[in-house]
Amino acid sequence: MATSLPRGNNRSRSGAQRLLPAAPGDIQAALTVMGRRDPRHDANHMIDLSYAKLFGADLHRAYLASADFEGADLTGAIMHEANLTGATR
């Protein structure tokens, strides 16, 4: 059974060639918003991504300090230059 990758540019924002399929568009859009938010407005709330299916997500340069990734599937995720200070897994 043949599997095809999405057409078009198969590179992340970091310019790295993807070897695995990217995350679905709606998931990637939500992660992009979370990663670009102003953390000064977090009021000590932690981003809970525990058990999330983040397969192929582009988290390049995302600010996800103190996020909870326990049990999350990060297979193929691009995390180059992401701020994961204090994040749990």
UniProtKB/TrEMBL annotation:
Residues 1-20 are annotated as: Disordered. InterPro entries: 5peptide_repeat. It comes from the Bacteria. Residues 1-15 have a biased composition (Polar residues). This is Pentapeptide repeat-containing protein.
